[in-house]
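Internal tracking record. Fields below are filled automatically when a chain is submitted to the structure queue. Please do not edit lines marked as system-generated. If the sequence contains nonstandard residues, flag them in the REMARKS field before resubmitting.
Queue: standard
Priority: normal
Entity type: single polypeptide chain
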Amino acid sequence: MSLKTVDEAVMMLSAINLKQDVRRNRLIYSICNLETGAEKVKKTIEFRQHGSTLDDEEVDHWITVCRSLVRFAIMVDEELLVRFCKKHINKTVEEFSLVEVLMAINRPMQAYYYGIRVAAATRKRKEKEAQEE
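SYSTEM-GENERATED OUTPUT FOLLOWS
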């Protein structure tokens, strides 16, 4: 499939069916503001990967991750990126975790910070599931 316009990408990636119940069915990315008919809004790609927080340490880590993703996108050799993506594209979160992604973009402090939180959330979810059984 090849997309010829930004509007086609918006249509394909915006999951129009989600508009029926946007509070419950939100995607982690939104490119709706890139659509041709959206001239009165800023042309942005919105990503909702992180929970709301006022914790300064957490905000600092998240900003570092975002800045690192942008820097990585600017600096990465395209052929190397294609090989990397082909190698990992079909892996599950368990097979290629957030920690591994952060290490791949040279963010060991953030890998440690978020790795601890992911492990704690996983443990909490398993405890809750065990209680419900």
